[in-house]
Amino acid sequence: MSQASTAPLGRYQLSQLDFLEAEAIYIMREVAAEFERPVLLFSGGKDSLVMLRLAEKAFWPGAIPFPVMHVDTGHNFPEVMEFRDRRLAEAGVRLVVASVQEQIDAGKVVEPTGRWASRNRLQTAALLEAMEEHGFTAAFGGARRDEEKARAKERVFSFRDEFGQWDPKQQRPELWNVYNTMINPGEHIRVFPLSNWTELDVWGYIAREQLELPAIYYSHQRTVFERDGILLSDSPYINRGEDEELFEATVRYRTVGDMTCTGAVRSSATTLEEIMAEIAATRITERGQTRADDRSSEAAMEDRKREGYF
Amino acid sequence: MSTDILRFATAGSVDDGKSTLIGRLLFDSKSIFEDQLDAVERTSRGRGEEQTNLALLTDGLRAEREQGITIDVAYRYFATPRRTFIIADTPGHIQYTRNMVTGASTSDLAVILVDARKGLQEQSRRHAFLTTLLQVPHLVVAVNKMDLVDYSQERFEEIKQEFTAFATKLDVNDLTFIPISALHGDNVVDRSINMPWYDGSSLLHHLENVHIASDRNLIDARFPVQYVIRPQRAADPELHDYRGYAGTVAGGVFKAGDEVMHLPSGLTTRIAKILTADGELDEVFPPMSVTMLLEDEIDISRGDMLCRPNNQPEVSQDIEAMVCWMAESRKLTPRSRLVVKHTTRTAKAVVRDVRYRLDVNTLHRDEDASDLALNEIGRVSLRATQPLFADEYKDNRLTGGFILIEEGTNTTVGAGMIVRAE
Prior knowledge:
With 310 residues, chain A is an alpha/beta fold. Helices cover 32% and strands 15% of the residues of chain A. At the A-B interface, helix 1 and helix 2 of A face helix 2, helix 4, strand 2, strand 3 and helix 5 of B.
């Protein structure tokens, strides 16, 4: 790099975290002002915890003017569920659960089978049905453009048709900070306030705001097995082959999703500072390192997004 | 780590080496990860390409990878110790002009790539024009593939002179020329040893050091009211009369105690407090998101604006603007009925006249034109159902820009830049 020093910020300049926070708060207020029934998608993971904090700030000292929704595969990390309930109670927001299990029980979707069985893709149906049932017209998601190449192309306000589909070739032009929020009945908009954040920005914000996270983000001992280079946690939800041997490892989670497709990384980082140092040094993306669901094809994310995925 | 953010757009076709340049900036700043590079190498090999095709890093959509072109804007992120960067990688083809306009609208700087062998092309002129139309404050012309012209100073100077002559027709504030070879890395991150005659900065050094803090309008105070916060909590008597006007500062500096004027009423009051969830602030500037408490009770709602009694935007229903038309299925014509969204204010509008259409390649004004088709740009007069609080786009991109929405389909069909309100 050409320079090693950090330039001091002058008067009337915002640091990158202040800039990103201001932009996200603007986006959240725009949604609250223009949509009748917004909802915030919430998994209990780090990005959704940042979103919840931003929502608290955007409407302070008022309450957050929308509920949160968890699309629940039933295959969650127990530590994350416990944390979800505690944090939402503290924030005083209403939780709507869109249950994949209920969809399976009602025969609306079919449980995948086999070694690679995961309910990840079934989340789309549960999400879309809950959107319709509750009449939600806008859904905040925590997706970031730095996560994945299809996401890098997506607008901040991303239009979805009555089937929840994303059409990457027909995206609405998005200029300045003027967002088109108009939709017809049955359609909705996915809104991504963290579009311009990177993984390091999220961690930097967590550190600055001193946000509490589920314990699995920090280093701990866990019984795991290896599949396709990803360390998966042993759990009743996963179909482990006889050739896949269990072992103990010191790990943490870099992302938190469904137990069947979220991998752990070997790590001894027990503090935010250690985690940030680790991420700054890593040469592998978070989805590449920890998500089995992105590996099925080159355009796996684009295909899922077209169907209405997050 | 506290650094500021520079947003820049890149324009040029794949043939100009745009993707190679972005790939190199990301690679040299360690922002490309091994698994991303592995995936790109795998795909390149699978297609029988000899070299790793770095365009695959930013052309993220299936259709783009199939056709080998950039269709829509991709955003990429990298940081150096000095700055955080957001790249809007925009398409160069004329049929995707609307997507380039989208990418340029939020950019502080644009990098236009010119192939040193081919010199200034029609599309280089178009990119330069669109960049200046959107008032991107800084323009860099990166003369690429210098290795293929033997790093010739003469060739570089030729292109520089030709471009400078063309730029006199444009409204360019800051124009910089850098001779580079994206493929070999000359003058991208480090100064090239192959061009000792060049005494300017490398591209990255320029991006890290270009002064952008004064690009924002810090003179004309503008606060579009976005949302009214009225906490309904009986338990807290302190909040009983709380009425906070939330929004993002669009121009100027507001200080607690300042006298402000409310539009459209024209009533004046003072700022009692400027608040955020983190506490009270003495002064705020763009683009901070804050909440204002005012001394007097005035009827204020979303779409209104706070400014200064002695410095107001034009309050008018009649707007003259340069419009980039973005609809595939219909043209903009006189009497077109549309929705205009300008700052936090939404109104209906009717097109009164198309004054002229601008040829984006030659800048020729066609005064006989009576409509604008997809990707065409022209000067248009509109009348809105409600007054807009309009600044000229050249003075403030946030209070001078608007979008046009088609009723029924709800698609964004136009981008407008205010020339004059009357």
